[in-house]
Design a protein that fits this description.
The complex is a heterodimer of chains A (260) and B (134). Chain A has twelve helices and eleven strands. By secondary structure, chain A is α/β, with parallel strands linked by helices. Chain A has a single domain, classed as P-loop containing nucleotide triphosphate hydrolases (Rossmann fold), CATH 3.40.50.300. Chain A has an eight-stranded mixed sheet with strand order 6-7-3-8-2-9-10-11, with helices on both faces. A two-stranded antiparallel ribbon of chain A has the order 4-5. The longest helix of chain A is centred in the first third of the chain and has 14 residues. The radius of gyration of chain A is 18 Å and the shape is globular. Chain B has one domain: hypothetical protein PF0899 fold (2-Layer Sandwich). In chain B, helix 1 packs across helix 2. The longest helix of chain B is centred in the N-terminal third of the chain and has 20 residues. Classes of the chains: A alpha/beta (260), B alpha+beta (134). The interface between A and B is large, with 37 and 40 residues. Strand 1 of chain A pairs antiparallel with strand 6 of chain B.
Chain lengths: 260, 134
């Protein structure tokens, strides 16, 4: 018998991720809700908790993780693959380390090919948690990453409290329902003013799907200052990051429990 | 030297397929697409070294170069990497060595100058066919 079209990268990805405790997909379905900043801050929080953290930028068309961490230049090549640069204790991999700010106009399956190549080639070593900054939309990349042959893949659904963001987050939660990826929870971001958590649209969304509501992160102008300066340490000192740490405390404990 | 990882990935994948199907590997055809600019002799050498002691040790392995085929989705022009090789800098070539799709970031259609094109063939190393004696 003959087999054709065997994509060996899938097996490579399984092997790479076998040394990773947990994979957390930070998703929203919609752009502009702060996924990238949440992902970067979360990876920084994991690392600052004494755990080993990686950040995979899966937003192939609009990568920003490298910029957020100030990573530049091609990753080094080791014997076992590409070695992600370590910034603020976080191993960062992004297509922008290769494209260096240029546009990445990919048609058809191009973006997913880039993702598969990066995941297959990146030697993360041992990680307690790999945070994945997901792209907007529910296309190939989301379908690839929610189909990883790995246990302990979770999804953190980030939404702003407005109707547009929550309507798209609703679609994402619908897609996650019944799948292999555990929904870690719903997190409201860039929330202005004070409101009772469960009365907000992110809270109601979590309730509707029977998944944990992780709270609301405040709109914090100091976040954009830190991002402008590419200063992850300053980002981690913001009220936003302190709220994020509190929201994710149970998840962080879980990582610690499963860490070797 | 990520070629080593890729070749090891190929050997693992073929071995797993043989185990799943319960057969012996008779032959494997590997394509080496020109966009990733691998040295085909290096790929052959790595396969020869790494197959030892695996299910591929006795298999007939052929490694074939594959020309690229890129199609413009605006004007329909089909072209080959060699037609563009001149204007692509060595830094860009290195970038494509890791991620061939980044051809889209450093070139345009030679006919209409648009960036809306797709790589149809010859991107990187791939398994064309595995024959098992099942």
């Amino acid at each position: 018998m003959s087999e054709s079209g065997l994509d060996f990268r899938r097996g490579m990805i399984d092997r790479r991720l076998a040394h990773t405790g947990r994979v957390l997909l930070v998703m929203s379905g919609k752009g502009g809700v702060g996924k990238s900043v949440v992902s970067a801050a979360l990876a920084g929080i994991v690392a600052s908790s004494g755990l080993t953290a990686g950040l995979m930028d899966a937003d192939i068309y609009g990568p920003s993780s490298a910029l957020l961490f100030g990573a530049r230049g091609l990753p080094a090549e080791g014997e076992s693959g590409l070695v992600p640069p370590v910034l603020n204790g976080v191993k960062v991999m992004s297509v922008d380390l290769f494209a260096s700010g240029r546009p990445i106009p990919l048609a058809g399956s191009g973006a997913n090919e880039v993702l598969l190549e990066l995941l297959a080639l990146t030697d993360w070593g041992n990680l307690d948690c790999l945070v994945v900054d997901m792209p907007p939309a529910t296309g190939d990349i989301m379908l690839t990453l929610t189909s990883l042959r790995k246990r302990d893949v979770g999804a953190l659904v980030v939404t702003m409290p407005d109707r547009l963001s929550t309507s798209v987050a609703h679609r994402v939660l619908e897609l996650l329902k019944g799948g292999d990826v555990t929904t870690v929870g719903v997190l409201g971001n860039m929330v202005r003013g004070s409101s009772k958590d469960n009365e907000t649209s992110p809270g109601r969304l979590a309730e509707e799907f029977g998944v944990p509501f992780l709270g609301l992160l405040p709109f914090d102008p100091l976040v954009s200052d830190a991002v402008e300066k590419g200063n992850v340490e300053a980002l981690l000192r913001t009220k936003f990051a302190r709220s994020l740490r509190r929201s994710m405390v149970a998840y962080l404990r879980g990582i610690r429990r499963s860490a070797p | 030297m990520h070629e080593l990882s890729l070749v090891q990935g190929i050997i693992n994948a073929v071995g797993e397929t043989a185990r799943e199907k319960g057969g012996r590997v008779q032959s494997v055809r590997i394509g080496v697409g020109e966009l990733a600019q691998f040295d085909i002799r290096l790929v052959r050498g790595l396969l020869n070294d790494l197959k030892k002691g695996t299910s591929l040790e006795e298999a007939r392995i052929t490694v074939e170069p594959e020309k690229s085929k890129v199609k413009c989705l605006t004007c329909g022009r089909v072209w080959n990497f060699q037609e563009l090789a001149g204007p692509i800098s060595s830094d860009d070539r290195e970038m494509m060595h890791f991620i061939p799709e980044l051809l889209n970031s450093c070139s345009r259609c030679p006919n209409c100058s648009k960036s809306y094109f797709e790589i149809e063939e010859g991107r990187s190393v791939r398994i064309i066919e595995v024959v098992l004696d099942v």
